[in-house]
What does this fold into?
Amino acid sequence: MVSVPRRVCVVTGSRAEYGLLYWVIRELHEDPEVTLQLVATGMHLSPEFGLTYRAIEADGLPIARMVEMLLSSDTAVGIVKSVGIGVIGFADVFSELKPDVVVVLGDRYEILAAAQAAFFMGISIAHIHGGELTEGSIDEVIRHTITKMSRYHFVAATAYARRVIQLGESPETVFDVGAPTLDNISRLALLSREELSEALKFDLSRPFLLATLHPVTRGTAAAAGGMGAMLQALDAFPEYRVLITRPNADPGNRELTQLLDQFAQAQTERVLLATSLGNLNYLSALRHCEAVVGNSSSGIVEAPAMGKPTVNIGSRQKGRLKADSIIDCGETSEEIAAALRRALSPQFKAMAARTRSLYGTAGASTRIVSMLKRLDLTRNTAKPFHDLT
It folds into this structure.
């Protein structure tokens, strides 16, 4: 009897998450024992966020379906409606593709829509990066919700494995594989500083900072206030050029984007504002920058792995495992500037260069793909709740 390749559907909704998933997707695509079903949604399909599905196609990875769901809105009501549209779209796509397993990463609302559809249709879900905490973001609740809908869990650290089990998941379904993004650092041929300058059409021969600030979607912090404070703090270091990536499609996005546009337009020789750098350019910028500033998870996971200092602003990443190279600070310009001065000191930079990742080692993507090929996906029964003893 001829063996039928396992149909593995991978959902990606943003530039950043696609970068984390890249080698998982690549290895699935190249494996003859697997039929990859790649579904693009969310920010990938939005002109406002750079139509980044084109980058997936440029990488030679076939997109099986696209799910349009992102309304032109950054309000809470708009997000809720986008999730509803997404659930409907994914129901149609999963009905057509009939995947054996749906692979999702993280905690975005686009991914919640995909997980809801797969869960109600009885399709096994494999979740990457569960068990983590981000107390300043609604992503935390979404992440734990996806965990409860998923049958298998690929986590990035032992502490996160314990937390997934604490949520009632069976230890036999939880696998500590590390962070797949570390494969990008070990496997991509990153650009030299000169090559990066040419690719971005921006002179990076002088020292520069890499900045990203996403809206804080939980708590009382004012997103615009945090952005204004970060930009004011960056102006306290005029000797550094600044490379900024735009924030995610979260509530409050547009107010932040307006501030960024004004900041970049006033200093075109010093500041480059990019909608999407792409995986190669971003990691190359991370290699050559002096420090990372903002509240992106890349400052928590990738920056320490590359020996770079991080100034982590506010509460968005509160609760994540953090290396010694990460400086937490408040959201005033004075606090951010003080943290930057410390991060840029020779002593701190030397310490950061010796930092080791808290998120495992390279090879997570291969480990995930290997397990996806052999996991038992035939069961369609309710999961038992695993009580801690």
Summary: The longest helix spans residues 76-97. The CA atoms of residues 69 and 82 lie 5 Å apart. The radius of gyration is 20 Å.
